[in-house]
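Escalated from tier 1: S-adenosyl-L-homocysteine holo job.
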Amino acid sequence: MPATPAWPPKSAPRLFVEQELSANAAVQVEGNQAHYLAKVMRVSPGDAVILCDDITGEWAAEVVEAGKRHVALQPKQHLRPREPVPDFWLCPALLKKDRFDLVLEKATELGAARIAPIVTRRCVADKLNADRADMIITEAAEQCARTALPEIAPVAKLDALLRDWPQERHLFFADEEGGEPAADAFCYAEGPAALLVGPEGGFDDTERAAIRAHPASVAISLGPRILRGETAAIAGMAVWMAEAGDWLDED
Ligand code: SAH
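Tier 2 regenerated the structure:
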Protein backbone atom coordinates (compact mmCIF):
# COMPACT_ATOMS: atom_id res chain seq x y z
CA MET A 1 0.00 0.00 0.00
CA PRO A 2 1.82 3.23 -1.09
CA ALA A 3 2.18 5.74 1.77
CA THR A 4 -0.13 8.75 1.56
CA PRO A 5 2.01 11.77 0.63
CA ALA A 6 2.51 14.17 3.56
CA TRP A 7 0.31 17.29 3.50
CA PRO A 8 1.43 19.99 3.28
CA PRO A 9 4.47 18.92 1.27
CA LYS A 10 7.80 20.20 2.62
CA SER A 11 8.25 22.05 -0.66
CA ALA A 12 5.12 24.16 -0.07
CA PRO A 13 5.85 27.88 -0.44
CA ARG A 14 5.81 29.98 2.75
CA LEU A 15 4.29 33.43 3.11
CA PHE A 16 3.70 35.95 5.88
CA VAL A 17 0.32 37.66 5.50
CA GLU A 18 -1.08 40.77 7.17
CA GLN A 19 -4.40 39.33 8.34
CA GLU A 20 -4.83 37.11 11.39
CA LEU A 21 -5.33 33.55 10.20
CA SER A 22 -8.16 31.17 11.09
CA ALA A 23 -9.94 28.23 9.51
CA ASN A 24 -13.02 30.39 9.08
CA ALA A 25 -11.64 33.10 6.82
CA ALA A 26 -10.20 32.89 3.32
CA VAL A 27 -7.01 34.85 2.63
CA GLN A 28 -6.73 37.13 -0.40
CA VAL A 29 -3.14 37.68 -1.55
CA GLU A 30 -2.44 40.49 -4.01
CA GLY A 31 0.48 42.19 -5.77
CA ASN A 32 4.01 40.85 -5.42
CA GLN A 33 2.98 38.02 -3.13
CA ALA A 34 0.38 36.86 -5.65
CA HIS A 35 2.99 37.14 -8.42
CA TYR A 36 5.41 35.06 -6.33
CA LEU A 37 2.82 32.33 -5.77
CA ALA A 38 1.26 32.31 -9.23
CA LYS A 39 4.20 33.06 -11.54
CA VAL A 40 7.30 31.97 -9.56
CA MET A 41 5.95 29.07 -7.55
CA ARG A 42 3.21 28.43 -10.18
CA VAL A 43 0.63 27.30 -7.64
CA SER A 44 -2.79 26.17 -8.84
CA PRO A 45 -6.07 25.43 -7.06
CA GLY A 46 -5.67 22.55 -4.60
CA ASP A 47 -1.98 23.24 -3.97
CA ALA A 48 -0.72 23.81 -0.45
CA VAL A 49 0.86 27.05 0.81
CA ILE A 50 2.17 27.61 4.35
CA LEU A 51 0.86 30.90 5.76
CA CYS A 52 2.08 32.74 8.86
CA ASP A 53 0.57 35.83 10.46
CA ASP A 54 3.06 36.55 13.28
CA ILE A 55 0.11 36.19 15.68
CA THR A 56 -1.46 32.70 15.65
CA GLY A 57 1.52 31.00 14.04
CA GLU A 58 1.68 28.77 10.97
CA TRP A 59 -1.17 27.30 8.92
CA ALA A 60 -1.36 24.96 5.96
CA ALA A 61 -3.66 26.59 3.43
CA GLU A 62 -5.15 25.37 0.16
CA VAL A 63 -5.09 27.48 -2.99
CA VAL A 64 -8.67 28.22 -4.03
CA GLU A 65 -7.97 30.59 -6.93
CA ALA A 66 -4.65 31.48 -8.60
CA GLY A 67 -4.47 34.57 -10.81
CA LYS A 68 -1.46 36.68 -11.89
CA ARG A 69 -2.13 39.46 -9.39
CA HIS A 70 -4.53 37.74 -6.99
CA VAL A 71 -4.51 34.39 -5.20
CA ALA A 72 -7.21 33.18 -2.81
CA LEU A 73 -6.32 30.63 -0.15
CA GLN A 74 -8.26 28.82 2.57
CA PRO A 75 -6.34 28.00 5.78
CA LYS A 76 -7.07 24.35 6.57
CA GLN A 77 -4.73 23.15 9.33
CA HIS A 78 -3.00 24.99 12.17
CA LEU A 79 0.54 23.55 12.11
CA ARG A 80 2.53 25.47 14.72
CA PRO A 81 1.91 28.29 17.16
CA ARG A 82 3.97 31.49 16.89
CA GLU A 83 7.29 30.24 18.15
CA PRO A 84 9.13 31.62 21.18
CA VAL A 85 12.55 32.89 20.15
CA PRO A 86 15.44 33.55 22.54
CA ASP A 87 15.15 36.88 24.31
CA PHE A 88 18.04 38.37 22.35
CA TRP A 89 18.30 41.83 20.82
CA LEU A 90 20.85 42.84 18.21
CA CYS A 91 21.80 46.52 18.42
CA PRO A 92 23.86 47.13 15.29
CA ALA A 93 25.20 50.51 14.29
CA LEU A 94 23.97 51.43 10.82
CA LEU A 95 26.30 50.30 8.04
CA LYS A 96 26.40 50.88 4.29
CA LYS A 97 23.15 49.60 2.74
CA ASP A 98 24.22 46.22 1.37
CA ARG A 99 26.14 45.35 4.52
CA PHE A 100 23.25 46.35 6.79
CA ASP A 101 20.85 44.35 4.61
CA LEU A 102 23.06 41.34 5.36
CA VAL A 103 22.86 42.07 9.11
CA LEU A 104 19.05 42.23 8.97
CA GLU A 105 18.81 38.98 7.03
CA LYS A 106 21.29 37.03 9.18
CA ALA A 107 19.92 38.35 12.48
CA THR A 108 16.51 37.04 11.38
CA GLU A 109 17.88 33.65 10.40
CA LEU A 110 19.87 33.38 13.62
CA GLY A 111 16.82 33.98 15.81
CA ALA A 112 16.96 37.58 17.03
CA ALA A 113 13.76 38.63 18.81
CA ARG A 114 14.41 42.31 18.16
CA ILE A 115 16.74 44.39 16.02
CA ALA A 116 17.40 47.86 17.43
CA PRO A 117 19.56 49.82 14.95
CA ILE A 118 21.63 52.67 16.33
CA VAL A 119 23.33 55.68 14.79
CA THR A 120 26.75 56.73 16.14
CA ARG A 121 29.21 59.51 15.35
CA ARG A 122 31.14 57.46 12.80
CA CYS A 123 28.16 55.91 11.02
CA VAL A 124 28.34 56.41 7.26
CA ALA A 125 24.57 55.83 6.96
CA ASP A 126 22.24 57.76 9.24
CA LYS A 127 18.83 56.42 8.28
CA LEU A 128 17.14 53.13 7.50
CA ASN A 129 14.43 52.46 4.92
CA ALA A 130 11.86 50.81 7.20
CA ASP A 131 9.80 49.26 4.38
CA ARG A 132 12.91 47.74 2.83
CA ALA A 133 14.02 46.44 6.23
CA ASP A 134 10.58 44.85 6.79
CA MET A 135 10.77 43.18 3.37
CA ILE A 136 14.25 41.76 4.04
CA ILE A 137 13.25 40.46 7.47
CA THR A 138 10.00 38.93 6.20
CA GLU A 139 11.71 37.18 3.29
CA ALA A 140 14.43 35.87 5.61
CA ALA A 141 11.80 34.60 8.06
CA GLU A 142 9.93 32.85 5.23
CA GLN A 143 13.17 31.29 3.98
CA CYS A 144 14.28 30.01 7.41
CA ALA A 145 10.75 28.95 8.42
CA ARG A 146 10.46 31.24 11.45
CA THR A 147 6.87 31.70 12.58
CA ALA A 148 7.70 34.86 14.57
CA LEU A 149 9.06 37.96 12.85
CA PRO A 150 11.79 39.84 14.69
CA GLU A 151 10.67 43.27 15.80
CA ILE A 152 12.63 46.08 14.20
CA ALA A 153 12.90 49.23 16.31
CA PRO A 154 13.22 52.73 14.88
CA VAL A 155 16.84 53.91 14.55
CA ALA A 156 18.00 55.35 17.89
CA LYS A 157 20.98 57.47 18.88
CA LEU A 158 23.49 55.61 21.07
CA ASP A 159 22.98 57.94 24.05
CA ALA A 160 19.21 57.40 23.94
CA LEU A 161 19.69 53.64 23.75
CA LEU A 162 21.94 53.70 26.82
CA ARG A 163 19.69 56.11 28.72
CA ASP A 164 16.56 53.98 28.18
CA TRP A 165 18.26 50.61 28.56
CA PRO A 166 16.15 48.03 30.46
CA GLN A 167 18.24 47.23 33.52
CA GLU A 168 17.54 43.48 33.52
CA ARG A 169 19.04 43.00 30.05
CA HIS A 170 22.75 42.23 29.60
CA LEU A 171 24.29 44.68 27.13
CA PHE A 172 27.17 42.80 25.57
CA PHE A 173 29.39 45.36 23.91
CA ALA A 174 31.50 43.99 21.03
CA ASP A 175 34.71 45.88 21.63
CA GLU A 176 37.57 45.32 19.21
CA GLU A 177 39.86 46.87 21.81
CA GLY A 178 39.25 43.86 24.00
CA GLY A 179 36.90 42.34 26.52
CA GLU A 180 35.85 39.01 27.97
CA PRO A 181 36.01 36.14 25.46
CA ALA A 182 32.49 36.11 24.00
CA ALA A 183 31.78 32.44 24.66
CA ASP A 184 32.69 32.78 28.34
CA ALA A 185 30.70 35.97 28.85
CA PHE A 186 27.62 34.53 27.12
CA CYS A 187 27.82 31.18 28.83
CA TYR A 188 27.81 32.59 32.36
CA ALA A 189 25.25 35.36 31.93
CA GLU A 190 21.67 34.16 32.33
CA GLY A 191 18.64 36.06 31.11
CA PRO A 192 17.74 38.61 28.47
CA ALA A 193 20.67 39.76 26.38
CA ALA A 194 21.69 42.15 23.63
CA LEU A 195 24.75 42.58 21.44
CA LEU A 196 25.92 46.09 20.58
CA VAL A 197 28.13 46.38 17.48
CA GLY A 198 29.80 49.48 16.07
CA PRO A 199 29.98 50.95 12.56
CA GLU A 200 32.71 50.74 9.95
CA GLY A 201 34.79 53.30 11.86
CA GLY A 202 34.09 51.88 15.28
CA PHE A 203 32.93 53.79 18.36
CA ASP A 204 34.82 56.93 19.26
CA ASP A 205 36.45 57.27 22.69
CA THR A 206 33.54 59.15 24.22
CA GLU A 207 31.05 56.56 22.98
CA ARG A 208 33.20 53.68 24.15
CA ALA A 209 33.56 55.24 27.60
CA ALA A 210 29.79 55.82 27.84
CA ILE A 211 29.06 52.22 26.87
CA ARG A 212 31.62 50.79 29.28
CA ALA A 213 30.30 53.01 32.08
CA HIS A 214 26.77 51.64 31.66
CA PRO A 215 25.86 49.25 34.52
CA ALA A 216 24.38 46.64 32.15
CA SER A 217 27.33 46.61 29.75
CA VAL A 218 29.88 43.81 29.44
CA ALA A 219 32.69 44.33 26.92
CA ILE A 220 33.27 41.15 24.92
CA SER A 221 35.99 40.14 22.47
CA LEU A 222 35.30 38.31 19.22
CA GLY A 223 38.92 37.32 18.80
CA PRO A 224 42.22 39.01 17.92
CA ARG A 225 41.29 40.35 14.49
CA ILE A 226 39.35 43.47 13.52
CA LEU A 227 36.05 42.23 12.08
CA ARG A 228 33.76 44.24 9.84
CA GLY A 229 30.62 45.31 11.68
CA GLU A 230 28.46 42.82 9.82
CA THR A 231 30.92 40.01 10.60
CA ALA A 232 30.99 40.94 14.28
CA ALA A 233 27.18 41.04 14.44
CA ILE A 234 26.76 37.68 12.73
CA ALA A 235 29.62 35.93 14.53
CA GLY A 236 28.61 37.40 17.91
CA MET A 237 25.01 36.26 17.45
CA ALA A 238 26.12 32.78 16.45
CA VAL A 239 28.26 32.44 19.58
CA TRP A 240 25.40 33.71 21.76
CA MET A 241 22.90 31.31 20.20
CA ALA A 242 25.32 28.44 20.70
CA GLU A 243 26.11 29.36 24.33
CA ALA A 244 22.85 30.77 25.66
CA GLY A 245 20.29 30.73 22.91
CA ASP A 246 18.27 28.02 21.21
CA TRP A 247 21.07 25.91 19.79
CA LEU A 248 21.27 24.02 23.06
CA ASP A 249 19.66 20.61 23.38
CA GLU A 250 16.08 20.97 24.53
CA ASP A 251 16.31 18.62 27.49
N1 SAH B 1 37.84 50.24 15.01
C1 SAH B 1 37.86 49.33 13.86
C2 SAH B 1 36.63 49.47 13.02
C3 SAH B 1 35.41 48.99 13.73
S1 SAH B 1 35.03 47.33 13.38
C4 SAH B 1 39.07 49.59 13.00
O1 SAH B 1 40.07 49.97 13.55
O2 SAH B 1 38.99 49.39 11.79
C5 SAH B 1 33.28 47.38 13.51
C6 SAH B 1 32.72 46.89 14.84
O3 SAH B 1 32.83 45.48 14.89
C7 SAH B 1 33.41 47.38 16.07
O4 SAH B 1 32.92 48.65 16.47
C8 SAH B 1 33.07 46.31 17.08
O5 SAH B 1 31.77 46.52 17.62
C9 SAH B 1 33.05 45.07 16.24
N2 SAH B 1 34.30 44.30 16.27
C10 SAH B 1 35.20 44.18 15.27
N3 SAH B 1 36.19 43.34 15.62
C11 SAH B 1 35.92 42.91 16.89
C12 SAH B 1 36.57 42.03 17.81
N4 SAH B 1 37.71 41.41 17.49
N5 SAH B 1 36.00 41.83 19.03
C13 SAH B 1 34.85 42.48 19.36
N6 SAH B 1 34.18 43.31 18.53
C14 SAH B 1 34.71 43.54 17.30
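The mean pLDDT is 95.
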